[in-house]
Design goal:
190 residues; alpha+beta; eight-stranded mixed beta sheet; 32% strand
């Protein structure tokens, strides 16, 4: 067996939750990722490259996402329609630390917005992080003004803790961001 320090902290998983299915990204998703990331809102509010090329999608799906799973520091999920298999969104745990901290990030394909897909997926990933990975604090940040992202975490019971002045870099510019957290013993939203 290999060196335990070089072993992944968790294996890639698939989770079905009602109308959505979460799984690691596959090469067959490259075109869906590329198409979704052409959306101006995704390019404005996330750290993806802009313009977003097909090569960027290939690198993410075939190199960056698998590496996060392999090194045990991230869990990037494709969020699919459980019936049709179409890509609806992306939800990722990133910056998973040995001391129980993780960050959640996401985007939603334009055609899937307004249906609660990302809110449901964030809830599923959060429960998995707490119950399986032993995460003790799940953090979220978003640029001030990204109300769609904020509504997702508020629906999942995150506490908005405040505004970090110039706490986020988007497109090479340091901007103010909101920060929120969810703890395993927080009361679920009603």
């Amino acid at each position: 067996m290999g060196d335990p320090d070089q072993m992944p902290k968790f294996d890639p998983v698939e989770i079905t939750a009602g109308r959505i299915h979460l799984r690691p990204w596959l090469p067959s998703d490259i075109d869906d990722v590329h198409n979704a990331c052409q959306d101006p809102d995704i390019q404005h509010w996330t750290r993806i490259p802009a313009p977003y090329t097909r090569r960027d999608a290939e690198a993410y799906v075939t190199e960056l996402a698998p590496r996060q799973w392999d090194d045990g520091r991230g869990a990037p999920f494709a969020v699919l329609d459980a019936t049709s298999g179409s890509v609806l969104a992306s939800v990722s745990l990133t910056e998973v630390t040995d001391d129980g901290l993780a960050t959640v990030g996401y985007w939603c394909a334009p055609g899937a917005r307004g249906q609660g897909v990302v809110s449901q997926a964030v809830g599923v990933v959060g429960r998995w992080a707490f119950q399986v990975l032993g995460v003790e604090r799940l953090e979220w940040t978003a640029g001030v003004g990204n109300w769609a992202s904020r509504r997702v975490v508020e629906k999942n019971g995150f506490t908005i803790e405040g505004t970090l002045r110039r706490g986020l870099v988007l497109r090479g510019v340091r901007i103010d961001c909101w920060i929120g957290s969810l703890l395993p013993d927080d009361q679920p939203p009603s």
